[in-house]
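Thread: "does anyone have the structure for this chain?"

Original post by V.I.:
We have the sequence but no experimental structure in hand. Need at least a predicted one for the grant figures.
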Amino acid sequence: MKIKIINRLKRNKGQLEALIRVIENEEDCEKILLQFQAAQSALDGAFKVFLESNLSQCLENGDQTKIKKLLPLILKK
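Reply from O.Q.:
Generated one for you, tokens below.
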């Protein structure tokens, strides 16, 4: 799981670097918006992998206290 998340975050880093480049180069609005969407999508993917793994661990352990702490953070998004 750790490797999956790190790999996804590295891809997100690449997306963020591309976003910075298009903004610095004053590319057209459409290109900038596409880069924003790509970066958001990559970060959402890493979040989902992390979330799935952590919720599974909480449910397997029956850790209701931890789940109650996590839910407001998850729903905040």
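V.I.: this helps a lot. The domain at 2-76 is CATH 1.20.58.1000 (Methane Monooxygenase Hydroxylase; Chain G, domain 1).
O.Q.: and Residues 5 and 47 are 8 Å apart (CA to CA).
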